[in-house]
Known about the structure:
By secondary structure, the chain is mostly beta strands. The protein is 11% helix and 42% strand.
Amino acid sequence: MAAEKKIRPPRGALLVIAIGLLASVAAALLSTDESIGTATLEWIEEAPMAKSKPAAIPGGGEMRLSEAEIRSTEPNISDYTLFRVSAVLTIDADSAVGHGRLSCTVHVPSRTIVAQTSKSRAAYPRSSEDLFEQDTPETSLVEFSSHSTDLASVEVSDVFGKRYTEEKGIVVEWAPYRIAQQVWELGLPSGRPKRDLKLPFVSIWRTTAAPAARMSCEVETAAGAATVHTAGSLPG
């Protein structure tokens, strides 16, 4: 019995070993890109939305919507589908938009709701005091039942570069929530942009209907207003 006690490690040593193992497991979990129980979903269907006609900006310059498209995942067991609406608004360099107000709106059909992340709507960019400083995401982690999980990760990085914009001083706010609608309201800085001003937008939705969307952007200055539109849908 005395010999057995000699070869047993002290209880304190066992406690230290157990704590070390738990810490290693926790560190491994925190280092993963996705949460436990997250399904990574692919966009399996896509359709372009028409490039808008250029709109003349009062005082000089033009703007347009381009690179617009709809992408969707496969439906889950409840026949809900995730779909993404994305587009890039381009305002020409030297356009008269200093101190202008810009509003971009996505409308979707009924039976469609905006997807939710853990804290907010799955819409990008987020509200920000300076869009130049806001980080762009690689994926969006949304609440969606699929593959026996309640969270789904979908790609959005292909729409964005390293930054949302190269123009400093752009303020972004979301309009209050409304069913089947997402609105971004932007305050533009003073002066005319020295280079083309490109602003990407993404919103993610849940639906049991065929994915479809209309998008419009309007810039308003002291000299007047200009608006561009696009729309598209997926078959189904």
